[in-house]
Automatic annotation (TrEMBL):
GO terms for biological process: cellular response to nitric oxide. Keywords: Coiled coil. This is Diguanylate cyclase/phosphodiesterase with PAS/PAC and GAF sensor(S). Residues 24-278 form the EAL domain. Signal peptide: none annotated. The keyword Signal does not apply. It comes from Rubrivivax gelatinosus (strain NBRC 100245 / IL144). GO terms for molecular function: cyclic-guanylate-specific phosphodiesterase activity.
Length: 292
């Protein structure tokens, strides 16, 4: 009986692994053509100052709409892009498209201070990354200070020395660096001292529990205070309720991002959103999005 179960379990296991690798191969082949077929696009999720009174920028989020597979989540296709090496060309496309979009907005008088672009650890290990980024910025006519690159803690995991060098090169060009999903990865606090990090992005998993869990409250408060002590800014991701926003603002978190403030938007929707909030901020009695 046990042997029978064991064998069934084994069959089930291999079938699942097989289905998974078939899906990955399928995605990899489809992804190879996605760029040239124009299936990739970008969304922009507004980032607010924590008093809710102004939009400080947006996070750039990649979208893939395949004709047969439908919308594929970046959580699923980014790992495929990384393992196949496609991330290099896709990542450059993201940077180029985002900076050119920012150029268009600024030329049309739509005030957007910064764009935050996610950078995969694989891209981060590319030689001459800083030169590539600087080239893309100058092509679009965008000052480096308007670009923020979101890195995860994993960039430092296999070669911390190389990571420090790459960060220093980007920093020297004037690009701002933030640590995404902070608190979930390979956190060696001693590296924070050496990294030229401008901002910590507190992971969504802690924000979700910030009202009901004493542990999450303690973690979030500690991250905010750590950042302050090191002269870094903080942004909370995944803010879904007013109560979470209120808590974060009271604890001194600088910026907020999440569904409660806005979902990720298409470029045209984002421009309209910024215009609407500018009109609001220009009111005689500025109306805060968040209650005082
Ligand atoms: P991330 O950088 O941590 O991005 C935040 C994710 O949280 C986004 O998912 C966003 O849509 C989602 N989100 C925003 N607000 C809320 C909220 O209030 N509640 C909840 N539950 N979720 C919220 P998305 O767009 O599916 O992206 C997933 C991940 O894929 C990103 O996580 C990022 O790691 C990666 N990614 C996306 N675009 C790019 C890209 O251009 N390059 C690279 N290398 N990675 C990317
Ligand atoms: Mg991010
Ligand atoms: Mg994040
Ligand atoms: Mg995240």
């Amino acid at each position: 009986q046990a042997k029978q179960n064991g064998r069934n379990r084994f069959c089930f296991y291999t079938a699942e692994i097989q289905a998974q690798s078939v899906r990955m191969l399928l995605l990899e082949n489809a992804l190879r053509r996605a760029l040239e077929r124009g299936e990739l696009s970008l969304n922009y999720q507004p980032q607010f100052r924590s008093d809710g009174r102004c939009i400080v920028g947006a996070e750039v989020l990649l979208r893939w709409q395949h004709p047969e597979l439908g919308a594929v989540s970046p959580a699923e296709f980014i790992p495929v892009a990384e393992s196949s090496g496609l991330i290099t060309s896709i990542g450059e496309w993201v940077l180029r498209t985002a900076t050119q979009q920012l150029r268009t907005w600024l030329t049309n008088g739509i005030p957007v201070k910064t764009l935050a672009v996610n950078l995969s650890a694989v891209q981060f290990r590319q030689p001459h990354l800083a030169d590539i980024v600087a080239g893309i910025l100058s092509e679009a006519g965008i000052e480096a200070g308007r670009l923020e690159l979101e890195l995860t803690e994993s960039v430092a995991s296999d070669d911390p020395v190389a990571a420090v060098t790459a960060m220093n090169e980007l920093h020297a060009r004037g690009v701002q660096l933030s640590i995404d999903d902070f608190g979930t990865g390979y956190s060696s606090l001693s590296y924070l001292k050496r990294f030229k990090v401008y901002k910590l992005k507190i992971d969504r998993s802690f924000i979700g529990g910030v009202i009901d869990s004493a542990e999450d409250q303690a973690i979030v408060t500690a991250i905010i205070n750590l950042a302050k002590g090191l002269g870094m800014r903080t942004i909370a991701e995944g803010v879904e309720t007013e109560a979470q926003a209120h808590f974060l603002r009271k604890r001194g978190c600088d910026e907020l991002q999440g569904y409660w403030l806005s979902r990720p938007l298409r470029a045209d929707e984002f421009a309209a959103f910024v215009q609407a909030h500018r009109a609001m901020a220009a009111d005689e009695e500025p109306q805060a999005l968040l209650p005082a």
